[in-house]
Specification:
The complex is a heterodimer.
Chain A lengths: L1 H29 L2 H30 L6 H6 L6 H6 L5 H21 L6 H25 L23 H16 L1 H13 L4 H32 L10 H26 L3 H23 L6 H6 L1 H29 L10 H33 L3 E2 L2 H18 L13 H7 L1 H17 L4 H25 L7 H5 L3 H26 L1 E7 L4 E4 L2 E12 L4 E10 L6 E3 L2 E5 L4 E5 L1 E5 L2 E12 L5 E11 L2 H27 L19
Antiparallel strand pairs in A: 2-11, 3-4, 4-5, 5-6, 5-7, 7-8, 9-10, 10-11
Helix pairs in contact in A: 1-2, 1-6, 2-5, 2-6, 5-6, 5-7, 6-8, 6-13, 7-9, 8-9, 8-11, 8-13, 9-10, 9-21, 10-11, 10-14, 11-13, 14-15, 17-18, 18-20, 20-21
Chain B lengths: L6 H26 L3 E4 L1 H6 L6 E8 L5 E2 L5 E6 L4 E6 L12 E8 L5 E9 L7 H10 L15 E5 L4
Classes of the chains: A alpha+beta, B alpha+beta.
């Protein structure tokens, strides 16, 4: 019954989403407020129907109803409750329903928050969002229904892949999907504005919170996935330039470009057509990501050809969304041209450089991700494009952008003073050069690491120099005045400093990581990275749905009490596979990372175990940096919400205006 | 220099800078897009060039895993018809087993063995690395289930110190 209820509510939601689309578009076209209000109501009803439908799917997983195919394939009665629930989105069908739910929820939020845009644009945007939801929902219900029954029902389920039974990975997919699908809101607003032919500063103002939200969720989702890979895959890697990772990284880059260009459009009215184009392309990349991850095309182009319906459906969605978006853009963009004069050295110019860099970087990742697929499809050759390609193309672009970045806040709109900005940044420059030289001297041959550390310090000190500057502006630097700084200042500084922190972590980990693999019998010890590791014993353990071995190790610095580490190897019999649960001892210098390997003979012929030891210097900075960026996103959203409450109507931003010493924001 | 640029000149400047960035990036892309080709053991048995980096997919041949005097891991990768010898200066990833799928990035050395820089083993029963499936398919004996899509990096990897 629950499954049928879920399926029925899904169909109901599809009808509601289609009506939302029709009512919104017609209401906008005829300028009929009643039709638009009906579209908004349909959007809310659609979200509620999908919420209940999704709750029904969760109930099926919690009750282990194996007469439902998805549950039978991906769940197990012995699985802990949290992973029964996480199993709902740990598979294709359930995750697609989540995609629809999020799209409908964004639609309902758009229906509630008009955000100062005109009735015509708003109504059409709600309509477009309804069509996006409807397309995803039709695909979910007709090509990959999570509510399909199995007859006869198996007595026990196939279990969720044990690698995915992990707290970080339980919330990783929803975060990522909030980001992917979040890009649909700027897309809908862009199309709504194009159809209505009204792209103004108020529109850009309305787009910003959505772009920020999507970017923030993507940041959190990608960071969680990276952190999971770091501790769960058992060898300390955190980024692989894997196509699945790139699939989420490209929308992230595009969203970052969008949220910067929308600032220019809001403040200055320029770059409007570029902002629109970015909103369309960013959603295209999010759909491409969904396609890459969900169609099986990455496993093999041929696997995709075996059951092409799903892949073709997502590709069709991608083609229609991009095609319609770009056609509208080509039709309307010439009328949007609204040139605002500015010189290269200005806030506008710096943000343009940011957009150029991010867009080109997205392109390089796109080429490296799609090239193997194209070669496979055309010539039947399987090839791989590895990290060297991405490091050689993406790295220099980012380095060039990082050099420019700290200047941007010190430049005024329209026409900035480069010498003034440079004078403000003398400390950041000095710290960066000192760090670069120190690393280069202390670790000979670590050229790239020293460049990365220098750039990272440049970003961090530069970001806080700006906070310091704003703090001292128009009064003494009292704590109260520090707290009273606009949230936008904190948001930007946190995010940019986070980028620097992450850069330092990434280059230090990549450049200075070390590893050692030893075979130890109980009682034996080994020295690695300044510590002594002694294997005490290896015991059998049993969990709710796994069994395995747990090692007890003493890790000691000379002259200090030992720390206990307990890495495990687990086998999940229902899924027929295992995981490695590593032990990580962290301090400020980085992680001491211990994985338990296979039982094996030691060189002395005793029964022992392979123990793999890694020293990952400063690796935590990578995740701290990502967290700072996400916090920056949250601060920026809060700031926008506050500004909106204070000034509900969009203020006419100063066109041109006299150059201020330091512009707001 | 001090003269104000006209709007057209400014636009030209922006396009020029953008074009320059694009050109440099395109150069970087083209010079670095050196793909690593996949080869099955049967293909390698007849056409392997010394020094070329390839990805080899197949199964770890039963009874072939050993260590040499220098502590290198030795094993053979087979597509059930032919096999190639691989030497790896490191420890195998967690799920490296005999008769299980493995993907190796390696260069052929003069002594006829492949020197591996990366060894990837499959990580769960539902998933076979596409190179492994392809190796067995190219040999002409494929009758497996349709491949299942997998989440990120679902393989364990170990990298040689020098890679």
């Amino acid at each position: 019954m629950i499954a049928e209820l879920g399926g029925f509510l899904g169909l109901l939601a599809l009808v509601l989403a289609l009506s939302q689309g029709a009512l919104g578009l017609v209401g906008g076209h005829r300028d009929d407020a009643r039709l638009s209000a009906a579209a908004a109501a349909a959007a809310q009803a659609c979200a509620v129907a999908l919420l209940v439908s999704f709750a029904a799917l969760i109930a099926l997983f919690v009750r282990s109803d194996f007469s439902v195919a998805v549950v039978a394939n991906n769940s197990h009665t012995f699985k802990p409750l949290i992973y029964k629930i996480a199993g709902v989105w740990g598979n294709h069908e359930g995750s697609m329903l989540l995609w629809c739910l999020i799209s409908a929820t964004f639609g309902a939020m758009m229906a509630n928050l008009r955000g100062g845009i005109s009735q015509g644009v708003w109504s059409r945007a709600v309509g477009i969002q309804g069509l996006v939801t409807a397309a995803a929902l039709a695909y979910t219900l007709f090509l990959s229904s999570p509510f399909a029954r199995l007859d006869p029902a198996p007595l026990q389920g196939g279990d969720l892949n044990p690698l995915l039974q992990d707290p970080a990975l339980a919330i990783h997919p929803p975060m990522l999907y909030l980001g992917y699908v979040g890009m649909s809101a700027p897309f809908s607003l862009a199309l709504g504005a194009l159809i209505a032919g009204q792209v103004d500063q108020g529109w850009a103002r309305a787009v910003r919170p959505w772009a920020l939200a999507a970017w923030t969720f993507l940041t959190i989702g990608i960071a969680l996935g990276s952190y999971w890979a770091y501790y769960e895959l058992g060898w300390g890697g955190w980024w692989f330039w894997d196509p699945v990772e790139n699939a989420s990284f490209m929308p992230w880059l595009a969203a970052a470009a969008l949220l910067h260009s929308a600032i220019v459009t809001e403040r200055r009215g320029s770059l409007a057509s570029w902002t629109i184009l970015l909103a369309i392309l960013a959603f295209g990349l999010a759909l491409l990501g969904t396609f890459l991850v969900r169609s099986g095309v990455l496993t093999s182009v041929h696997a995709f050809a075996v059951d092409p319906r799903r892949g073709v459906a997502v590709l069709t969605m991608l083609a229609v969304a991009l095609g319609a978006g770009l056609a509208l853009y080509a039709w309307r963009a010439p009328s949007l041209a609204r040139p605002a004069g500015f010189v290269a050295v200005s806030r506008d110019g710096a943000l343009l450089a940011n957009n150029l860099g991010l867009a080109v970087a997205t392109g390089t990742v796109l080429v490296g991700t799609l090239y193997p697929l194209l070669v496979d499809a055309i010539s039947n050759e399987i090839i791989s494009v590895g990290p060297p390609y991405f490091n050689a193309t993406f790295g220099p672009l980012m380095a060039a952008m990082f050099v420019i970045l700290p200047f941007a806040p010190f430049l005024t709109w329209r026409k900035g003073d480069a010498a003034y900005a440079a004078r403000q940044l003398w400390l950041a420059g000095a710290v960066a050069v000192a760090g670069l030289v120190a690393v280069a001297l202390l670790w000979k041959g670590a050229f790239w690491v020293s460049i990365g550390v220098g750039l990272g310090l440049w970003l961090i000190v530069g970001a806080f120099t700006y906070v310091w500057k704003r703090w001292g502006q128009g009064g003494a630097r009292t704590p109260a005045r520090l707290l009273a700084l606009p949230l936008a200042v904190w948001a930007m500084s946190l995010a940019h400093a986070g980028l620097g922190v992450m850069t330092i972590g990434a280059v230090a980990e990549t450049g200075f990581r070390s590893e050692k693999s030893v075979r130890l019998a109980p009682g034996e010890s080994t020295d690695f990275a300044g510590r002594t590791v002694k294997l005490l014993s290896v015991d059998q353990i049993e969990g709710p749905n796994y069994y395995g071995d747990r090692a007890r190790l003493d890790v000691s610095l000379p002259g200090k009490a030992p720390q206990r580490a307990a890495p495990e190897r687990r086998l999940y019999p229902a899924a027929g596979s295992g995981t490695s649960e590593v032990a990580i001892l962290s301090d400020w210098t980085g992680d001491y990372y211990i994985a338990l390997g296979e039982p094996s003979r030691t060189d002395g012929g005793q029964a022992g175990w392979t123990v793999r030891l890694y020293k990952n210097p400063l690796v935590h900075l990578i995740f701290v940096g990502a967290l700072m960026m996400a916090l920056g996103g949250v601060c920026a959203m809060t700031g926008l919400a506050r500004a909106r409450r204070r000034a509900p109507a969009p203020e006419p931003a100063a066109q041109g205006g006299a150059p201020q010493p330091v512009a707001a924001e | 220099m001090a003269k104000r640029m006209t709007r057209q000149q400014r636009r030209l400047a922006v396009i020029g800078v953008a074009g320059l960035v694009l050109a440099v990036t395109a150069g970087l892309v083209l010079s670095n897009l050196k793909p690593v080709y996949f080869r099955g053991p049967t293909e390698l048995a007849t056409s392997a060039k010394v020094g070329e980096l390839v990805r080899i997919g197949g199964l770890v041949k039963e009874g072939s895993v050993a260590r040499d005097a220098q502590g290198n891991l030795l094993f053979e990768v087979t597509d059930t018809a032919n096999a190639v010898k691989v030497r790896y200066a490191g420890d195998p990833p967690d799920l490296f087993r005999e008769n299980q799928g493995v993907v190796v990035e390696a260069k052929l050395t003069k002594d006829g063995a492949f020197e591996a820089s990366r060894v990837l083993a499959k990580h769960d029963e539902k998933y076979m690395p596409k190179e492994v499936a392809e190796a067995i398919k190219r040999k002409g004996e494929w009758r497996g289930p349709s491949d299942t899509p997998v989440p990120a990096a679902q393989t364990t990897t170990t990298s040689g110190a020098g890679s």
